[in-house]
Amino acid sequence: MDELLSEFLTETNESLDVVDVELVKFEQEPNNATILNNIFRLVHTIKGTCGFLGLPRLEALAHASETLMGKFRDGATVTPAAVTLVLNSIDRIKEILSELEAANGTEPAGEDRDLIDQLEAMSEGVEFAPAGSACDTLQALERPLRPGEVSLDELERAFQEAEVEEVVPLTLVEDTPAPAETAAPSFTKAEEKGEEVQNPSNAGSGKSVSNQSIRVAVDTLEDLMTMVSELVLTRNQLLEIARRHEDSEFKVPLQRLSNVTAELQEGVMKTRMQPIGNAWQKLPRIVRDLQQDLDKHIDLVMQGADTELDRQVLELIKDPLTHMIRNSADHGLETTQERIAAGKPEKGTITLSAYHEGGHILIEVADDGQGLNLERIKGKALKNGLATEAELEKMTEHQIQKFIFAAGFSTAANVTSVSGRGVGMDVVRTNVEQIGGTIDLRSTAGKGTTFIIKIPLTLAIVSSLIVEVAGDRYAIPQLSVMELVRVQSNSEHRIERIKDRPVLRLRNKLLPLAHMSELLGFGDSDADLDAEADNGFIVVMQVGSQTYGVVVDGVFHTEEIVVKPMSMMLRNLNMFSGNTILGDGSVIMIIDPNGVAAAMAGAGGADLANHADDIAEEAAATVSESDRSVSLLLFKAGSSEPKAVPLSLVTRLEEFDVATIERSNGRDLVQYRGGLMPLVYVNEEAGHRDEGSQPMLVFSDSGRSMGLVVDEIVDIVDDRLNVEVVSECPGVLGSAIIKGKATEVLDLGHYLPLAFDDWFMRKQIDAVDTSRKVLFLDDSSFFRNMLTPVLRAAGYDVTVCATASEAFEVMSSGEVFGAVITDIEMPDVNGYDFCETIRRDSRHHDVPVIALSAVVTPASIEKGRQAGFDDYVAKFDRPGLISALKDALTGEMGVAA
Amino acid sequence: MSNSNFTADATELVSAGSEYIQYVTVRIGGQLFGLPISQVHDVFVPEKVTKVPLAPVEVEGVLNLRGRIVTAINMRKKLGLVDEDKVEDMMAVGIEYKGESYGLVIDSVGEVLNLSAHEHEANPSNLDPRWAMVSGGIHRLSGELMVILDIDRLLTSLIEPKAA
Q1: Are A78 and A30 in contact (CB under 8 A)?
Q2: Residues 6+ positions from A515 with CB-CB distance below 8 Å
Q3: Which end of chain B has fewer beta carbons closer than 10 Å to its terminal beta carbon, N or C?
Q4: For residue A200, is pLDDT > 70?
Q5: B59 and A570 in contact by Cβ < 8 A?
Q6: Which residues of chain B neighbour A587 with C-beta distances below 8 Å?
Q7: What average pLDDT does this structure show over B68-82?
């Protein structure tokens, strides 16, 4: 591209940004001639340059805007509509400029007649304020002129004369004050600018200001930075050599070289620094537009705009900041009416401030609005499954408030054009964390909310911990390292495992661990891991709210490293954020804590994805109907999916201290109510927690108790228990929709024998698809509750009776059953008598009857056969029952056919 | 920026009907390859190469070449050659691609040949697809054949699948 043109583009873009800011200010103080002149001058320059470079479209637009601005300068009343129009024109100019840049200097085809017509119409139609006020405009500077200054009137005249004919030389743009200054919102700065303008001779010649600053391409600075890094490296090597030769004559000059190099490095670093005000430049305009969109009065206060930080960081922080300002304006501040009602000043204030604090920059975005609505956040957290009611109870206000940083969390009840589109603070958080920063908030109901962003001064130089993994060194950014823990198998810090996943008890928390070597794809045989575990270090890292530990082989030291981007070939490796050259000249990879966190979550994430598929399949499965509502206990165990058992089966809910678990005869037991109660785990591998307490469900029946250990008791709900998808997996009856979520219904028939050895081992059964009516008689509600879902899951339509007389009643009412299942030991009429009675009834004499008994001996089976039972099945032998039922029904069908 | 100029130069030379292109010849697993000299920045001995875990197999590692971090690509692996007869002192050819430095690790560097731009032949149809992907044609030299290494295609083939 033409060098002249590219220069023009850069400068015009900057000028336009200034115009944006100035216009907003001008709208607020329409009588401030200084601001007006500044705008006028910039627009005029753009117009002149466009004409000079042969860009008619831009020139026409700029000219029309300038004409309107001219009217204002002549004393026309400034209306918001007019300012909006000019701002729109500026936007159009920007659009054209960007297309111009993309098209390599060719002005895009098109017409701006719409805007120009409006501008012209506005210029024609403007009302002139009384002459007196025009006079005021010219006298805005209310102090005597200093020596060497010219009055505004004179300045005016100078402009009038210079206005049309003269093609303004490019250099004039150079005196546009550096963006840093223009962004500074304080009035003093504006006045300084005014003073600059007041010296037309200076502005015209472009000598004084432009000589003090030059424009340097970013690439040049980057190159310079690289070379300085190399110089530092070489110096380090020289120092190393000099150290080995004691009385070297190089010593003194080398020392000098060392100092100069350090200063040079610092100096070059400085060139990369820019005032944060550059990132704030667009904000006043955004706030102005927001005021109109939202119909709120907002005051934007900016403090510490001259706080400097690396331009790379600056670029990355721009968007999050804009988003946060929008957020504060839209959600934070109340409407004008609400403010008045709350006794607050009508005008809401958003305060943006920046300051240094120990190698970091803190940026605060504060509003004096309504504060966060805790109840709404709680509700949303519950709805999104981020926390349970019980967990929320225990949380502090601050912890609850922090939920707004969770993914997909937006409490905005209404989606406005400004925000509330479901992408909210979590995006801001992600952006901030990407540059190694953190975000926090303070909120007081009715007083307002303050967001605090803490970001490193520069990304180029990062203090890092150098660690060793599998014989190689890696750098971990110090910012995310919380602490280091030395682990030894015999010390109090040792690595423990829950289903092969290593964890560490760290004070009162359980820290998930990962072996760095495993994450990096090196050998992961168990022998290796154990050996490592003996002599490892754990780097405790925090990313956002996630804390985890990474096991490394060794820890060296911390070092200030210059981050260099990885080549394109390697950029897809999320585990690394870059690479660097160490003092000894070797290259090492920088580990990205975010990548590690993602890799650690990866396994769980895959499970979730599978689960989602399951749910989809379940949804597709046929829905059968059963409208009886059952109380269900929802809990979690082994995985994140909810599980359920009928509440009536559960005798008690207990929470016990894991320290009281005793091991005997190869099983875990607890002392419970004077006896030993065996513990059964939903997920055998996961076992129990390492410390603290753990909830369990106690099932008791005729003097026997067992404890089913779970992770968390979620809820008790009344819902229909409709097992819709029969499970192939032992211990799970199938899945049912409970409270709108796919929930695994546990098969207690699987767990009870696990607690007591004298029960049968179960085997896989096939799901029976023929739906048949079955009568099930049992006096024990425990078995009724347990077996009914089993039978339903197997596809039977079950009628349940608690007593023999009830069963007789049902059967004599004319209902026809495919089979009858009955308990043997029952109080008034036992199973044998019941069976004989059925056999005597002509209507039912050929109905298959299956006996269920806890006592299964050859003698009892013989007795059953004599009584007329078709089959004799042990209680808890779920598959046995199902297959007996299947045989009975198919046999009966054979007879019928 | 400068690199794309180099590439442009090379193609321009050919299209302009210029007679000769200079090739730096290298050996990879016994086969002779030629790289247009305009694209070769330097030839160096790769030392202290740092492994990059999880990287594609062709990536030998990263190393420091005069303050720049160079990604070293093992050409034997890229070309699907067995790595068994490991040459003791490997060499590397430094190239630039889109502003980044890469080092092609090869067995040895030979002489520079001045070859006619028009005399090379298209890839034989039965050429191993991994080779065909990076070969810009074949030169028949007296005694042996020289495969022209097309740097752009080589690096595109390394970068593109990952970018997707």
Answers
A1: yes
A2: A502, A524, A529, A532, A550, A551
A3: C
A4: no
A5: yes
A6: 48, 50, 61-64, 69
A7: 87
Which residues of chain B make contact with A576, given a CB cutoff of 8 A?
A: 52
B66 touches chain A (CB under 8 A): yes
Asked if residue B47 belongs to a domain, the reply is: yes
Radius of gyration of chain B (CA): 15
Task: Specify if B75 maps to a domain.
Answer: yes
**Predicted-complex ipTM score:** 0.82
Task: Count Cβ atoms within 10 A of the Cβ of residue B15 and give its class: 0-12 exposed, 13-18 middle, 19 or more buried.
Answer: exposed
Q: Please give the pLDDT value at position A458.
A: 67
For A580, which residue in chain B has the nearest alpha carbon?
A: B69
Residue in the structure block whose two tokens are 């240094």: A356
CATH of the domain at B20: 2.40.50.180
**What is the arithmetic mean of pLDDT over B139-146?**
89
Backbone angles phi, psi at A472, to 5 degrees: -115, 160
Name residue A463's amino acid: S
Alpha carbon of A14: minimum distance to chain B alpha carbons (Å) = 25
Nearest to B55 among A227, A573, A580 (CB): A573
**pLDDT for res A381:** 81
Per-residue model confidence as pLDDT tens digits over A739-753: 777 788 777 767 776
How far is it, in rounded angstroms, from Cα A714 to Cα A219?
A: 57
Q: What is the pLDDT of residue B92?
A: 92
pLDDT in tens, A466-521: 999 888 899 998 878 888 988 877 676 778 777 777 888 887 778 888 888 888 88
Token pair of A791 as six digits: 């039978």
Number of Cβ within a 10 Å radius of residue A843: 11
* Contact list, A567 vs chain B (CB under 8 Å): 62, 69, 71, 100-102
Residue A594 contacts residue A436 (beta carbons within 8 Å): no
Whether B162 is covered by a domain: the verdict is no
pLDDT at A836 over 90: no
Which helix (H) or strand (E) is A46 found in, with range? helix A33-53
**Helix, strand, or coil here: B57?**
coil
Q: Residue A206: what pLDDT?
A: 40
**């990062």: which residue's tokens?**
A462
Count of residues in chain A = 897
In the block, tokens 């591998």 appear at A685
All structural domains of chain A = 3-212 (1.20.120.160), 218-271 (1.10.287), 277-456 (3.30.565.10), 461-599 (2.40.50.180), 621-755 (2.40.50.180), 772-896 (3.40.50.2300)
What's the rounded mean pLDDT across residues B87-99? 83
Domain membership of residue B110 as a residue range: 2-154
Among residues A736, A735, A733, A734, the alpha carbon closest in space to that of A751 is found at A733
Residue B74 CA to residue B93 CA, distance in Å, equals 11
Identify residue A150 by its one-letter amino acid code: V
- pLDDT, position B8: 43
- pLDDT at position B68: 83
Residues in chain B: 164
- The pLDDT-based confidence of A735 (bands split at 50, 70, 90) is confident
Residue B103 binned pLDDT confidence (cut-offs 50, 70, 90): very high
Q: Which residue type, as a one-letter code, is found at position A402? A: K
**Residue ranges of A 556-575 with Cβ closer than 8 A to chain B:** 564, 566-573, 575
Residues of A in contact with B101 (CB under 8 A): 567
Interface contacts (A, B; CB < 8 Å): 77
B56·A569 Cβ contact <8 A: yes
Q: How many domains does chain B have?
A: 1
Distances (CA, A) of A607 to A139, A240, A387, A641: 73, 53, 19, 10
Strand order in the sheet with A667-672: A652-657, A693-701, A704-709, A675-681, A667-672, A662-664
Contact B150, B133 (CB under 8 A): no
Asked if the structure places residue B159 within a domain, the reply is no
Please tell me if residue B57 touches chain A, with a CB cutoff of 8 Å. Answer: no
